[in-house]
Design goal:
Elements: H1 2-8, H2 32-35, H3 44-58, H4 70-85
Helix pairs in contact: 3-4
Length: 90
């Protein structure tokens, strides 16, 4: 019976809160254009392209750089993208 199977399985998964990168607040003292290597006349498409390239290079799961600040750099890139794509903060 299925209820026997449910009781015998050990609990191997624990769900913990995950940091959502889109909720990282951008520091207004930092220039988001500089983080994404863009000029101040960049379009939304330019921002998306630059983000995609930098995110691929700096993603914590796929980065060849195994230093401790890879996650921080990725969060910085995400926050810069969010700031530039938001018409109010741009």
């Amino acid at each position: 019976p299925s209820h026997v199977l449910e009781r015998s399985l050990p609990t191997i998964y624990s769900f913990q809160p995950v940091l959502l990168m889109s909720r990282v607040k951008f520091d207004p003292r930092v220039n988001p254009y500089k983080i994404l290597n863009l000029s101040s006349s960049a379009t939304a498409d330019d921002v998306k392209k630059a983000f995609k390239l930098l995110a691929k290079e700096n993603h914590p799961d796929s980065s060849s750089k195994k230093s401790g600040n890879v996650g921080e750099r990725f969060a910085e890139i995400v926050a810069a993208r969010d700031a530039l794509l938001d018409t109010e903060t741009r």
